[in-house]
Write a structure and sequence with these properties.
- The protein is of the alpha/beta class.
- It folds into 2 domains: 128 residues, 3-Layer(aba) Sandwich (Rossmann fold); 135 residues, Rossmann fold (3-Layer(aba) Sandwich).
- Strands 6-5-4-7-8 form a 5-stranded parallel sheet, sandwiched between helices.
- Strand 7, helix 7 and strand 8 form a beta-alpha-beta unit.
């Protein structure tokens, strides 16, 4: 079969991806379209080092301890299910039953995809998929006296959300089912930055806030900004875009509506295939 340039719109493009969780999937989406992928996973997701607090939360939730449940990530739902599978399999049925009975409020579409695998769907979905978007949705609800479970991520306390819930008269019951750990060796990261400075990388695509924070924590300063100025910077959605802007970097590629890998890939194709080699 003969392939035209349209079949491989990213041919001869070198794209760096810091993705860890879905590294192979993202790489394959780009490579099928002709890109050369530079893999440099900046952050790895790991099980919480101490499952006891999470299991305590799960027992309380399964016993009817929440009226509402805020789901911030699909990964968080998967990790809760994994903890049940490995540490308390007898809770699985009651956990799914409670998910069906409480009011579930998802930050964007990703938690809903995991719920659908259980035959469920979220009661409400916050759009945009950000903390301010979640708070804006919650402001339309009467939360006085409500027991609100909050699935968070990493060790981020989400102070803005917690302060809002307290002001609204709710009792916040947070749980952190996974943590972030640095993935790529420092030397690999510095090598990537050098390649970007030398103009050997066409684009870098960030898919999480944690990737941005680790990169600026490790490299930081003018060196990193200069490297990013030489490179097309893409962000998977508004949370990541805002994190880049907070560090003085304006992303040039952000999907307009759906914030996951396929729309990000398409946005990169549209931007890179329309520019000169």
């Amino acid at each position: 079969m003969t392939h035209t340039d349209a079949d491989v719109p990213l041919q001869n493009r070198r794209i760096a991806i810091p993705e860890s969780r879905e590294l192979d999937l993202f790489a394959s989406l780009l490579e099928r379209r002709g890109a050369t992928v530079l893999r440099c996973p900046l952050v790895d997701i790991r099980e919480t080092p101490d499952p006891v607090p999470v299991l305590t939360w799960l027992h309380a939730f399964c016993a009817g301890g929440c009226d509402d449940l805020l789901l911030f990530t699909g990964e968080g739902v998967r990790r809760l299910l994994s903890l049940i599978e490995h540490h308390a399999p007898d809770l699985h049925e009651s956990f799914v039953k409670q998910l069906a009975s409480v009011r579930t409020i998802a930050r964007g579409p990703k938690p809903g995809r995991v719920l659908r695998e259980l035959g469920l769907k979220p009661s409400l979905v916050a759009d945009p998929a950000t903390t301010p978007g979640m708070i804006a949705l919650l402001q339309t609800l009467d939360l006085q006296g409500r027991r609100v479970g909050v699935q968070l991520y990493g060790t981020e306390p989400n102070t803005a959300l917690m302060e809002f819930l307290a002001t609204a008269g709710a009792q916040a019951l947070p749980v952190w089912p996974y943590v972030y750990a640095d993935a790529a060796a420092d030397a690999e990261v510095f090598a990537l930055i050098e390649s970007m400075q030398q103009g050997r990388v066409d684009a870098i695509a960030f898919t999480s806030l944690q990737q941005v924070e680790r990169l600026f924590r490790l490299v930081g300063g003018e060196r990193l900004k200069q490297a990013l100025a030489q490179t097309l910077v893409a962000a998977i959605g508004p949370v990541v875009a805002d994190a880049l802007r907070a560090h003085g970097v304006q992303p040039q590629v952000v999907p307009e509506q759906s914030y996951y890998l396929k729309p990000l890939t398409q946005a990169l194709i549209e931007r890179l295939s329309s520019s000169l080699p």
